[in-house]
Amino acid sequence: MSYTVSQLAEQLQGDVLGDGSVRITGFAAAAQARAGDLTFAEKASYFTTAEQSAASAVLVSGDFTSATKPLIRVSNARVAVARLLPLFFPPETEFPGIHPSAVVAPSARLDPSAHIGPHCVIGENVKLGARCVLLGGNHVRKDCVLGDDVVLHPNVVLYPRTQVGNRVIIHAGTVIGSDGYGYVFDQGRHLKMLQVGQVIIHDDVEIGANAAIDRGALGPTLIGLGTKIDNLVHVAHNVSFGRHNLIMGQCGFAGSTTLEDYCVIASQSGIAGHLTIGAQATVGAKSGVMRDIPPQGTVLGIPAQPDKQFKRQFIAQQQLPDLLKRMRALEKEMAALKDPPAG
Q: pLDDT per residue over 241-268, tens digit each?
């Protein structure tokens, strides 16, 4: 597709600085841009690189001007990029239909617009909404319900009674609804506690590759509206995520923990069970959270503690080698005063 700079600016409700008739055929980062591409810049250093690149125009947020390239000025360049990329990189279209290798239970109800790829297995009483896409090797077990525009990438597994909202994307290898980790100790052995709950995923959720979300022990495990979960995340039974949370890669959540809305959990963090993480809380990378976090709180470290307290302790630790040297010097001086040399 080809657009003029003016057409793109109009779509973004931005302003054109320079020749709005320049035609744009692609989008690329400044270092890889070629003639015909649009690139973007948020900071002065990025703008210098973008202006010197081969790109035909630059998308900017800020008071930039250029004598060599037309600019599209918007309030937030990164948001504008997210809106423009589908124009230049439209998603692949999967046509309705069921691949001959798929196995579909007679009682399953599939919208005629759904796409069922090779080697999929659809269980009894499954319901698939409009324009659902199962790309291959997916197992959707009995009594699952999927809303409209759901995309399951290859080898995603949904255990029985999983509920998935509209416009949900689940990436390859992820398992939804596997048994929660529930055992009781009885007569010298660990007795399995049946996990009879389910997983409920609300609208506009995206879940990365090779994640695992366990079903509840009795009630549901909940993933709230608009939440985004990265690769290799484990969510244990009865965890409840609120709306629009961001969960980075390799995090783990023990059972029955609650995240309220707009939380950010950075990579490789672990959250203990039965905690409440308040709305808009932030957990720094590699943190071990063992206590509740208040709304808008920020914690770091193992065990996690308020960020200002952690930073003070971190600075103090960096000063320890110098303090040890000074202490040894003082000890030598004290020893000399206590036992002066003869004469």
A: 999 999 999 999 999 999 999 999 999 9
Q: Judging by beta carbons within 10 Å of its beta carbon (0-12, 13-18, 19+), is residue 181 exposed, middle or buried?
A: middle
Q: What is the pLDDT of residue 320?
A: 86
| Active-site hit among 139, 190, 237, 274 | 237
Can you tell me the distance from the alpha carbon of 173 to that of 83, in angstroms, rounded to the nearest whole number? Answer: 28
Domains of the chain with bracketed CATH: 3-88 (3.40.1390.10), 156-303 (2.160.10.10)
Tokens standing for residue 125: 């009483």
Dump pLDDT digits (tens) for 88-143.
999 888 999 999 999 999 999 999 999 999 999 999 999 999 999 999 999 999 99
Determine the angle formed by the axes of helices 5-12 and 77-88, rounding to 10 degrees: 120
93 DSSP β-pair partners: none
**Distance, CA of 267 to CA of 282 (rounded, Å):** 11
Give the list of residues 6+ apart from residue 285 with CB closer than 8 angstroms, or none. Answer: 248, 266, 267, 268, 269
d(CA 343, CA 119): 96
For residue 44, the SS3 value is: helix
Residue 318 CB burial class (10 angstroms; 0-12, 13-18, ≥19): exposed
pLDDT > 90: percent of the chain: 86
- pLDDT > 80? residue 73: yes
Q: Is 237 part of the annotated catalytic residue set?
A: yes
